[in-house]
Amino acid sequence: MTHLTLVRHGQSDWNEKNLFTGWENPGLTKQGLKEARETGEALKEIGLTYSHLYTSVLDRAIDTANIILDVLQVNGINTVRDKALNERDYGDLTGLNKDDAREKWGEEQVHIWRRSYDIPPPSGESLENTAERVLPYFKEEILPLLVIGNSVLISAHGNSLRALVMFIEKLSPEEILKKEISTGQPITYKYDGNNFKGIWEI
Is residue 20 part of a domain? Predict the structure, then answer.
Protein backbone atom coordinates (compact mmCIF):
# COMPACT_ATOMS: atom_id res chain seq x y z
CA MET A 1 0.00 0.00 0.00
CA THR A 2 1.36 3.41 -0.98
CA HIS A 3 0.69 6.72 0.76
CA LEU A 4 0.10 10.40 0.14
CA THR A 5 1.19 12.96 2.70
CA LEU A 6 -0.12 16.52 2.68
CA VAL A 7 1.78 19.13 4.71
CA ARG A 8 0.88 22.76 5.13
CA HIS A 9 4.10 24.80 5.32
CA GLY A 10 5.44 25.79 8.72
CA GLN A 11 4.50 29.13 10.21
CA SER A 12 5.55 32.02 7.96
CA ASP A 13 6.49 35.55 8.92
CA TRP A 14 3.10 36.78 7.67
CA ASN A 15 1.21 34.05 9.56
CA GLU A 16 2.88 35.32 12.70
CA LYS A 17 1.84 38.90 11.89
CA ASN A 18 -1.76 37.81 11.11
CA LEU A 19 -1.58 39.05 7.52
CA PHE A 20 -3.41 37.73 4.46
CA THR A 21 -0.58 36.08 2.52
CA GLY A 22 -1.90 34.47 -0.65
CA TRP A 23 0.72 34.41 -3.42
CA GLU A 24 3.18 36.65 -1.57
CA ASN A 25 6.42 34.99 -0.56
CA PRO A 26 7.44 35.51 3.09
CA GLY A 27 9.87 33.06 4.67
CA LEU A 28 9.45 30.73 7.62
CA THR A 29 9.76 31.93 11.20
CA LYS A 30 11.83 30.08 13.80
CA GLN A 31 8.58 28.41 14.84
CA GLY A 32 7.95 27.44 11.21
CA LEU A 33 11.41 25.88 10.90
CA LYS A 34 10.75 23.93 14.11
CA GLU A 35 7.37 22.73 12.83
CA ALA A 36 8.96 21.47 9.61
CA ARG A 37 11.63 19.54 11.52
CA GLU A 38 9.03 18.04 13.84
CA THR A 39 6.98 16.94 10.83
CA GLY A 40 10.01 15.20 9.36
CA GLU A 41 10.71 13.48 12.66
CA ALA A 42 7.09 12.31 12.99
CA LEU A 43 7.11 10.84 9.48
CA LYS A 44 10.48 9.20 10.09
CA GLU A 45 9.27 7.64 13.33
CA ILE A 46 6.52 5.71 11.54
CA GLY A 47 8.85 4.77 8.68
CA LEU A 48 7.38 6.76 5.81
CA THR A 49 9.43 7.69 2.76
CA TYR A 50 8.63 9.12 -0.66
CA SER A 51 9.56 8.77 -4.33
CA HIS A 52 8.00 12.07 -5.46
CA LEU A 53 7.70 15.57 -3.98
CA TYR A 54 5.28 18.24 -5.19
CA THR A 55 5.30 21.80 -3.87
CA SER A 56 3.90 25.16 -4.82
CA VAL A 57 6.35 27.71 -6.22
CA LEU A 58 6.35 29.66 -2.94
CA ASP A 59 9.40 29.53 -0.66
CA ARG A 60 7.56 28.66 2.54
CA ALA A 61 6.28 25.41 1.01
CA ILE A 62 9.60 24.60 -0.69
CA ASP A 63 11.64 25.25 2.46
CA THR A 64 9.27 23.15 4.60
CA ALA A 65 9.60 20.24 2.18
CA ASN A 66 13.39 20.49 2.06
CA ILE A 67 13.64 20.36 5.86
CA ILE A 68 11.34 17.33 5.98
CA LEU A 69 13.40 15.51 3.34
CA ASP A 70 16.61 16.35 5.17
CA VAL A 71 15.26 14.80 8.38
CA LEU A 72 14.05 11.75 6.42
CA GLN A 73 17.48 11.56 4.71
CA VAL A 74 15.80 11.30 1.31
CA ASN A 75 18.08 12.19 -1.60
CA GLY A 76 17.44 12.33 -5.34
CA ILE A 77 13.67 12.54 -4.99
CA ASN A 78 11.63 13.43 -8.08
CA THR A 79 10.62 17.05 -7.42
CA VAL A 80 8.03 19.24 -9.14
CA ARG A 81 7.11 22.80 -8.21
CA ASP A 82 3.92 24.18 -9.73
CA LYS A 83 1.80 27.28 -9.11
CA ALA A 84 -1.31 25.08 -9.37
CA LEU A 85 -0.55 24.19 -5.73
CA ASN A 86 -0.14 27.81 -4.61
CA GLU A 87 -2.19 29.26 -1.81
CA ARG A 88 -5.50 30.90 -2.58
CA ASP A 89 -5.01 34.38 -4.05
CA TYR A 90 -6.48 36.85 -1.56
CA GLY A 91 -6.58 39.70 -4.06
CA ASP A 92 -7.09 43.10 -2.45
CA LEU A 93 -6.79 41.56 1.03
CA THR A 94 -3.19 40.45 0.41
CA GLY A 95 -0.76 42.02 2.87
CA LEU A 96 -3.47 43.41 5.13
CA ASN A 97 -3.67 42.59 8.81
CA LYS A 98 -6.88 40.63 9.33
CA ASP A 99 -8.05 43.04 12.03
CA ASP A 100 -7.42 46.01 9.71
CA ALA A 101 -9.39 44.29 6.95
CA ARG A 102 -12.33 43.84 9.33
CA GLU A 103 -12.16 47.54 10.21
CA LYS A 104 -12.14 48.52 6.52
CA TRP A 105 -14.84 46.19 5.16
CA GLY A 106 -16.66 45.03 8.29
CA GLU A 107 -16.34 41.80 10.23
CA GLU A 108 -19.25 40.09 8.47
CA GLN A 109 -17.96 40.81 4.97
CA VAL A 110 -14.42 39.64 5.76
CA HIS A 111 -15.84 36.49 7.35
CA ILE A 112 -17.81 35.80 4.14
CA TRP A 113 -14.68 36.20 2.02
CA ARG A 114 -12.65 33.96 4.31
CA ARG A 115 -15.18 31.24 5.05
CA SER A 116 -17.60 31.01 2.14
CA TYR A 117 -16.88 28.42 -0.54
CA ASP A 118 -17.67 30.42 -3.68
CA ILE A 119 -17.43 34.15 -2.84
CA PRO A 120 -13.96 35.58 -3.57
CA PRO A 121 -12.49 38.75 -2.08
CA PRO A 122 -12.05 41.63 -4.54
CA SER A 123 -9.60 40.62 -7.32
CA GLY A 124 -8.96 37.30 -5.55
CA GLU A 125 -9.98 33.64 -5.48
CA SER A 126 -12.63 31.76 -3.55
CA LEU A 127 -11.95 28.26 -2.27
CA GLU A 128 -13.99 27.04 -5.23
CA ASN A 129 -11.66 28.90 -7.62
CA THR A 130 -8.66 27.40 -5.84
CA ALA A 131 -10.12 23.89 -6.17
CA GLU A 132 -10.69 24.50 -9.88
CA ARG A 133 -6.93 24.69 -10.43
CA VAL A 134 -5.71 22.31 -7.70
CA LEU A 135 -7.94 19.30 -8.41
CA PRO A 136 -7.38 18.94 -12.17
CA TYR A 137 -3.63 19.17 -11.54
CA PHE A 138 -3.82 16.53 -8.81
CA LYS A 139 -5.92 14.17 -10.92
CA GLU A 140 -3.73 14.53 -14.02
CA GLU A 141 -0.23 14.70 -12.51
CA ILE A 142 -0.19 13.16 -9.02
CA LEU A 143 -2.97 10.59 -8.73
CA PRO A 144 -1.56 8.46 -11.61
CA LEU A 145 1.71 8.14 -9.65
CA LEU A 146 -0.18 6.76 -6.65
CA VAL A 147 -2.06 4.32 -8.88
CA ILE A 148 1.19 2.70 -10.04
CA GLY A 149 2.61 2.43 -6.52
CA ASN A 150 4.56 5.62 -5.84
CA SER A 151 4.32 7.42 -2.50
CA VAL A 152 4.02 11.20 -2.75
CA LEU A 153 4.66 14.15 -0.43
CA ILE A 154 2.85 17.43 -1.15
CA SER A 155 4.01 20.58 0.63
CA ALA A 156 1.56 23.38 0.02
CA HIS A 157 -0.89 25.74 1.74
CA GLY A 158 -4.01 25.82 3.87
CA ASN A 159 -6.50 26.37 1.06
CA SER A 160 -4.85 24.40 -1.73
CA LEU A 161 -4.69 21.48 0.72
CA ARG A 162 -8.32 22.05 1.75
CA ALA A 163 -9.28 21.45 -1.88
CA LEU A 164 -7.39 18.15 -1.86
CA VAL A 165 -8.81 17.04 1.48
CA MET A 166 -12.33 17.83 0.23
CA PHE A 167 -11.76 15.57 -2.80
CA ILE A 168 -9.98 12.75 -0.97
CA GLU A 169 -12.37 12.59 2.00
CA LYS A 170 -15.45 13.29 -0.16
CA LEU A 171 -16.47 16.28 1.96
CA SER A 172 -19.10 18.84 1.07
CA PRO A 173 -18.19 22.54 0.70
CA GLU A 174 -19.82 23.16 4.09
CA GLU A 175 -17.78 20.40 5.74
CA ILE A 176 -14.43 21.47 4.29
CA LEU A 177 -14.93 25.07 5.42
CA LYS A 178 -15.06 23.83 9.02
CA LYS A 179 -11.82 21.87 8.73
CA GLU A 180 -8.68 23.53 10.04
CA ILE A 181 -5.33 22.57 8.52
CA SER A 182 -2.59 23.61 10.90
CA THR A 183 0.88 24.73 9.88
CA GLY A 184 3.40 21.92 9.87
CA GLN A 185 0.87 19.19 10.67
CA PRO A 186 1.07 16.22 8.26
CA ILE A 187 -2.00 14.37 6.98
CA THR A 188 -1.13 10.97 5.49
CA TYR A 189 -3.60 8.86 3.51
CA LYS A 190 -3.14 5.21 2.66
CA TYR A 191 -3.80 4.31 -0.99
CA ASP A 192 -4.36 0.81 -2.37
CA GLY A 193 -4.14 1.56 -6.08
CA ASN A 194 -7.83 2.34 -6.43
CA ASN A 195 -9.01 4.19 -3.34
CA PHE A 196 -7.82 6.18 -0.37
CA LYS A 197 -8.12 3.90 2.65
CA GLY A 198 -7.93 6.09 5.71
CA ILE A 199 -5.38 8.18 7.55
CA TRP A 200 -2.17 7.38 9.40
CA GLU A 201 -2.53 9.05 12.78
CA ILE A 202 0.61 11.02 13.64
Answer: yes
